[in-house]
Design goal:
Layout (H helix, E strand, L loop, with lengths): L1 H19 L48 E5 L20 H11 L11 E8 L11 E5 L5 H18 L6 H7 L3 E8 L6
Parallel strand pairs: 1-4
Antiparallel strand pairs: 2-3, 2-4
Length: 192
């Protein structure tokens, strides 16, 4: 009799967490419907466990982000110094491109503002040149206009000093026209 009571008690406890674990999330943020083996239409690729209860959430690993975002600091940390070394070969990967763009940055020497951040967005053509001038997308709030102008001029001068970038044919074809967003962070102290 005690065995029966213990079994019923364990069954009652085991069903409680299953209801408590139900999540109210968008199961597939990248498409409108879950995938099925019998579907004839495109769907989002995903992989899930047969033991997982609830919706299957797609797991897509983009190594650098789909929209090519990059942060460049004026003074890189010791751990990141290798990422700021200019490649000694034609640019063949996104990592090579990011290293080249990081190595090109030279912050302004006048109007230095500690903690200043500025973001620009632009695209490259196949030959490694810019398609139009970089467009300003963000600047730290409360900064005087002349400081913003000096940082934007430093960004434009740094990019123009590196152009044209030497892409391999594969990377040049893959990057042509894709937007690249760079956030420049001036982490130098004031007066440096």
């Amino acid at each position: 009799m005690w065995r029966g009571i213990i079994v019923l008690f364990l069954l009652a406890i085991s069903t409680l967490p299953a209801d408590a674990r139900r999540r109210q999330i968008n199961p597939i943020p990248f498409s409108h419907e879950p995938c099925s083996v019998l579907d004839n239409r495109p769907c989002t690729p995903s992989f899930c466990s047969v033991l997982e209860h609830g919706p299957c959430i797609p797991e897509i690993y983009y190594p650098y982000g789909e929209n090519l975002q990059l942060t460049v600091e004026s003074v890189p940390s010791e751990a990141d110094r290798a990422k700021y070394a200019r490649p000694d070969h034609d640019l063949d990967t996104i990592g090579d491109l990011f290293a080249e763009l990081r190595s090109c940055w030279s912050p302004p020497t006048n109007d230095v503002r500690a903690g200043m951040q500025m973001s620009v967005r632009f695209s490259f053509n196949k030959a490694g040149g810019l398609i139009g001038p970089p467009r300003l997308t963000f600047a730290t709030a409360g900064v005087p206009a002349d400081t913003r102008t000096s940082y934007l001029n430093a960004i434009n001068a740094s990019l123009n000093a590196c152009l044209p970038l030497k892409f391999t044919s594969g990377l040049g074809g893959a990057l042509a026209g894709r937007p690249i967003a760079i956030r420049y962070v001036d982490n130098r102290g004031p007066g440096k």
